[in-house]
Amino acid sequence: MLQGFAGPIDPEDGQPNTPLEPGAFDNPELAVDFNGIWLNADWAAPQGGTIRCWVRADFLQITYKGRNINDIGKFFELVELGEIDAVPSNYPGGAVDDSAIVVPPSETAPQLPTATVNLNSGVNLQLRRTPSIQAESLALIPGGTDLSVLSRTEITPGTEIGAPQSPDWYFVQFATPDGSALITGWVSADFVILTFNGRAITAEDVPLAEDPLPVGEILAGTGSPAIAVPTEAPIVGLVSVGTGGNLNLRDRPSTDGIVVTPIPSGSSVVVLGRNGDGTWLNVRYEIAGQGASTGWVATEFVTVTRSGSAFPVNTLLITSGEADSMN
What we know:
The protein is mostly beta strands. It has 1 helix and 24 strands. It has 3 domains: 2-95, no CATH class; 114-220, SH3 Domains (SH3 type barrels); 235-315, SH3 Domains (SH3 type barrels).
């Protein structure tokens, strides 16, 4: 339950605590975003009772008569109407009733940002010893896996086919699912989504690693990691048909083939083979929430790589039943 927003301090209150940010709330209406507003609210504690506390507004969903208030202008319209009051920012939080128990946070290790691997199902991310696509791969990490982010660095993007476009690389920690190994290493920012406590963050929110840069290694466990680098990494295709465009996945290697599904530009597919003259690729594409679809796409719109390096189409397995006319 919202009590109000943080306004100027009350000099007559005599509270021994200091304001949230001394002098910051003399003119709270000047705030341009919710991250400049603190709210005083009552919280029904899970252990019972009510606790009054201060919370920054951008960490809450504010509603009024069933409507979400997502615009700061609308927020201050309610202030002008007297629906939301200013609360002196030197008023302390605490238990509102005798049944409330204030439990201080426990001493725990600091929380780390999370990098979630953002790849199609069946496509794995290389965890590398150093921040380079040429570096040794320590493990293959499936899409959707959460990694703990320790630091980052910036590397000038390469010009080779399949090279990451972002300069940012994250030094992360990965625990194999069976607990057989704890591995550190580097992943490109192009293939992960950053969050902290469930909220999206940017690369700038991750501390820069100091020189010399840390090197990935297997920190714990014995034997081979549960997710080790296979003898042969998958052959991957990156679809490129222009911003907003789609590439048709067809049921046979022909423009007369039935369209199975459109594949958005920028998507990754697993390359299974080719037709006789290499003008069509046999691929598997994972559709979110629908599973995988297999079919054919025109080669001219796909960049084929393995482990970040260009892969020659003529060496692909012919899966169309045609004779080889490339070699």
